[in-house]
Design goal:
Elements (H helix, E strand, L loop, with lengths): L5 H7 L4 H14 L4 H16 L5 H5 L6
């Protein structure tokens, strides 16, 4: 079941499939048994990245390669 349209938000944030998969892994750790909260937090992260309030690297806790 899909509660939120996080896929459109991810595309608007210009996340790759691999980045979205990595975001899923990170968010799933916090919400392993709650699909609605999982999707909500993925959506919120994608929106924050799209709006420039954070970066993908900050969300997943990775160092950006230079």
């Amino acid at each position: 079941m899909e509660y939120f349209d996080y896929e459109s938000a991810a595309r608007e944030a210009k996340l790759t499939d691999e980045q979205l998969r990595r975001l899923f892994e990170v968010v799933r750790r916090d919400y392993p048994d709650d699909a609605m909260l999982f999707e909500l937090h993925v959506l919120r992260a994608c929106n924050a990245i799209r709006e420039g309030r954070t970066t993908f690297e900050q969300v997943v806790g990775e160092t950006a390669e230079t």
